[in-house]
Amino acid sequence: MEKKTGELLSLHTTFRIGGPAKSFISVSDIDELRQALSDAHRPFIIGQGSNILADDGGYDGDVIKLTGSFTRVRAEGDEITAGSGALLSSAAVAAAEASLTGLEFSYGIPGTVGGAVCMNAGAFGGEMKDVVLKVFIYDRETGRELELSRDDMRFGYRESLVKSRTPDEARYIVTGAVMSLERGVRSEIEEKMAEIQDRRRSRQPLQYPSAGSVFKRPEGYFAGKLIEEAGMKGASVGGARVSDMHAGFIINTGEATSRDVKTLIAEVQDRVYGNSGVRLEREIMYL
Q: Do 53 and 287 touch, CB atoms closer than 8 A?
């Protein structure tokens, strides 16, 4: 276990925004996780920090990152078993190497398996709920390790049983997952992954720090299209800007603060509502 005081969250979020955490703790197995949680103050589990806007003033609590055994990925039969700290792209690569198809959609999603399971991440027609067989969690209230089935997880659009709105609500911590896939042809799987990566590069502003898609997709609409129709594509506040490539992304052009991003998000929501009557719901979490 490694513990740091005052670690900048900008170093651990894809937005590259965020002040110091009270403490930043790296744990490598379930025993270290249990120990870290035993006396933690407002613990927040962080993966790649790809769906998070951390506050400029930092976080007055303990940020815990799962490393070591939590980053392992194993292919066995038609299943991929991965720790929650493993990169989702690493799981997709392991699946391809084992000639297993079904996880290609996740290739290039900048997050971990744990974060993807919590929010039922998805892209290009696939979602985690399509492949997850079971999920391993740690219950903070009881101190027990549990195994949940796909049905137990209550997956919805960017939702699950274990997703929390704030760190104070987080009872369940995902420690790993098993994904059930199908046999395929490795060359075809890798070709599809390359195609998906090319589509990402051509459609998303990957050259700038961001937190991915800012808003959930409203039923019957596309957030990016609504934002563009409201005249907010390219709009900016300070160093935060609605991407000219994909209006569903807000990018950090270099010196953006969390205040800049929050202000811009609110302006986008107001303009879209005024133009279309649709209230965009934020997908990223404020820390």
A: yes
